From TrEMBL:
GO terms for biological process: protein insertion into membrane; protein transport. This is Membrane protein insertase YidC. It comes from Luteibacter pinisoli. PANTHER family: CYTOCHROME C OXIDASE ASSEMBLY PROTEIN COX18, MITOCHONDRIAL, OXA1. Its main location: membrane. The gene is yidC. It comes from the Bacteria. Residues 372-551 form the Membrane insertase YidC/Oxa/ALB C-terminal domain.
Length: 563
């Protein structure tokens, strides 16, 4: 009975977790239509009184008043990133992650194109923008027209970094040089906006950085269930030393807009496996805000912004405004070295305290085995060994209850439909035989958070993306193409069910148990094979443990009977 309750508990909690996640995505509250603030046109930063000395421009161009001139696209590339920069605003409008193919490598397609994160495609629009604003002079915002002296800058052999400069100048004498720099084997883009004030008056203004993104594409119900990316967080997030990481779903942009002054934080846009984050200087007091651009249109865009402190440049002087931009994978264990709290973009939530050490352990096992599938198997065995005492007590209680099935069945026949007397008689029988039907509760309470934490790790780990196992499984982040693992899991669950005590079980519960193996077999047919591998190995080891315990209990019972 205990083992039955355990399986039912895990099954129901798992189904509830998946259904709740999908319901939030499909039927969660949508942002209501709202008017675009007058001072924020197309994501344009304006005066922010929460920043000391901040000043908004008096001559913010409207949506249709972008400076004249023809823009062009230029590229900046190191060995891991290829960036496409639009000279209109100097915005990064495309980013290709050269080490991460967009699809698994196969014989038919041995060289798939690299994964693209930032994208200027209208339906998948995602851009990293930055600029300057001023209320007493000219300043290039993210719509100003810059000039690039070269159309391509690529990291050469032997070089440690590569830079690309874009320049803007005003007849008043103010000149701005925007420099993007990439270092070797680095996903961080260094931004330096140099303000050279050649005018006759002191220039004052603010620098800002922002991320602007279109909402996720709508998918049909089948893809929403079978695509692991649909169950991962897709939205914005921000970090402060006081509040730590705070996710900001797109559904909260209207009802809970972001507005915080932060020192030592960052803002980001997150998706499955990858994210982009603007990281202002750690010693600057920066205001983080959010807004919806064109909320009444068919394709609204969501924007998060970091608005910096006041900058003053005297005539003939030069001042630099710097920031960093991370564009890349959620490589756990390495991101905090870039900025405090950046590891939290994995967004494990309350499971962080469990999921983080599990991910570390999984990585260590991969370092030993050289295969992520083998690492998953080893992780299962280690967890089973660590929880052996708990599960041993649970399984032994189930084995003893199994031995009592004939007597429980006799009580059922004796009392018929009188459930109260039946329950009283069963409790007396359990007490006499020193069997505790609730012995399995503590193991469930301890192992369930571990299970959910590992579920998050296997679902979110970039290392498993397109990682091969053996034989027919070429991608642990994709479903088993031949459904071998789901079938194996179905057989393991079926055999486990056969070993469970069923006497005295509620009829509805008994019927549910009969169809549970088939339901979960079909359920897992569309899950990532790495996750199904974990479930199958975990179920198989539990089955072996239960068989061994049942065998030892049977021997002990037989020995006591013949003594």
């Amino acid at each position: 009975m205990n083992q039955t309750r355990t399986l039912l508990f895990f099954a129901l909690m798992f189904v509830a977790y998946v259904l709740w996640t999908q319901w939030e995505q499909d039927y969660g509250p949508k942002p209501p239509a709202q008017a675009t603030p007058a001072a924020q046109v197309d994501g344009k930063p304006a005066a922010d009184s929460s920043v000391p000395g901040a000043a908004g421009p008096a001559n913010v161009p409207s949506d249709t008043a972008a400076p004249a001139g023809k823009a062009e696209l230029v590229t900046l590339q190191n060995d891991v990133l290829r960036l496409t920069i639009d000279t209109r605003g100097g915005s990064i409008v495309r980013s290709e992650l050269l080490y991460y193919p967009s699809a698994p490598v196969t014989r038919k397609d041995p060289t798939p194109p690299p994964a693209r994160l930032l994208d200027d495609n209208a339906t998948m629009f995602f851009a990293a923008q930055d600029g300057l604003v001023s209320n007493n002079g000219a300043a290039p915002d993210h719509r100003a027209l810059f000039h690039a002296e070269k159309t391509e800058a690529k990291l050469a052999d032997g070089e440690k970094s590569v830079s690309l400069d874009l320049t803007w100048s005003d007849p008043s004498g103010v000149k701005v040089t925007k420099r993007y720099t990439l270092k070797r084997m680095d996903y961080v883009v260094d931004l330096d906006q140099r303000i050279d004030n050649g005018s006759q008056a002191t220039w004052s203004g603010n620098a800002y950085q922002q991320l602007q993104r279109a909402p996720a594409e709508k998918v049909n119900w089948f893809k929403s269930y079978t695509d692991p990316a649909q169950h991962s967080f897709f939205g914005a997030g921000w970090y402060s030393p006081e509040s730590k990481f705070e996710p900001l779903p797109f559904t909260d942009f209207a009802k809970k807009p972001l507005s915080h002054a932060v020192t030592g934080g960052w803002i980001s846009m997150l998706q499955h496996y990858f994210f982009v984050a603007w990281i202002p200087p750690a010693d600057q007091n920066v205001t983080y805000t959010s807004t919806i651009v064109d909320p009444n249109s068919a394709t609204p865009r969501y924007l998060v912004r970091a608005f910096g402190p006041a900058i003053q440049v005297a005539p003939g002087q030069v001042s630099d405004s710097v920031a960093r931009l991370y564009i890349g994978p959620k490589l756990q264990g390495t991101l905090d070295a870039i900025a405090p709290g950046l590891d939290l973009t994995a967004n494990y939530g309350w499971l962080t305290i469990i999921a983080t050490p599990l991910h570390w352990l999984l990585s260590q096992l991969h370092a030993i085995s050289g295969n992520w599938g083998v690492a998953i198997i080893l992780l299962v065995l280690l967890i089973k060994a660590a929880l052996f005492k708990l599960t041993d007590a649970q399984f032994r209680s189930g084995a003893r209850m199994r031995k009592l099935q004939p007597r429980v069945q006799a009580l059922k026949e004796r009392y018929g439909d009188d459930r109260m007397k039946m329950q009283q008689a069963m409790m007396e029988l359990y007490k006499k035989e020193k069997v505790n039907p609730m012995a399995g509760c503590l193991p469930i309470l301890i192992t369930f958070p571990i299970f959910i934490g590992l579920l998050r790790v296997l679902s979110e780990s970039i290392e498993l993306r397109h990682a091969p196992f053996f034989g027919w499984i070429h991608d642990l982040s994709a479903p088993d193409p031949f459904y071998v693992l789901p079938v194996l899991y179905f057989l393991v669950t079926l055999l486990t069910q056969r070993m469970m005590p069923t006497a005295g079980m509620d009829p509805t519960q008994a019927k549910m148990m009969k169809v549970m193996p088939l339901i979960f077999g079909v359920f897992f047919a569309f899950f990532p094979s790495g996750l199904v591998l974990y479930w199958t190995v975990n179920g198989a080891t539990s089955l072996l443990q239960q068989w061994w315990i049942n065998r030892s209990v049977d021997k002990a019972h037989e020995k006591a009977r013949t003594a």
